[in-house]
């Protein structure tokens, strides 16, 4: 059930690189384009004045940096994909009590947004 390829602490823990420039770690996944993008490429492709700025994007999991995040753990202040969420929050009884909320897609420019704002977006819902 749990995937064992999370790789935390192993020697081959590489962040997924940006699909476009392949020279920076990706930070978001565009659901519309099905691509992982670094902040620079995201700003380029989803510039506020272009139609693509309405593409829905999600943050990349902070733990494995390889999959789109599905949950925000408020206790850890971390964005987690479903497999990391399952892995981390099944590891001990305390962690399993953490309150997680589903991550909503980011729409619009990422400029001025960072992980701290995710909580606000979810509250506004
Ligand atoms: Zn890039
Ligand atoms: Zn896009
Ligand atoms: Zn993950
Ligand atoms: Zn947690």
From TrEMBL:
**Keyword Cell membrane belongs to the record:** no
Q: What are the recorded Gene Ontology BP terms?
A: regulation of flower development; regulation of photoperiodism, flowering
Q: Which GO terms describe its molecular function?
A: DNA-binding transcription factor activity; zinc ion binding
Superkingdom of this entry's organism?
Answer: Eukaryota
What are the UniProt keywords, alphabetically? Metal-binding, Zinc, Zinc-finger
Instruction: Give start and end of each B box-type domain.
Output: 13-60, 56-103
Give a Gene Ontology cellular component term annotated to this protein. Answer: nucleus
Q: Which residues form the signal peptide?
A: none
Keyword Metal-binding: yes or no? yes
InterPro entries per record: CONSTANS-like (IPR045281), CONSTANS-like_Bbox1 (IPR049808), Znf_B-box (IPR000315)
| Listed name of the protein | Putative transcription factor interactor and regulator Znf-B family
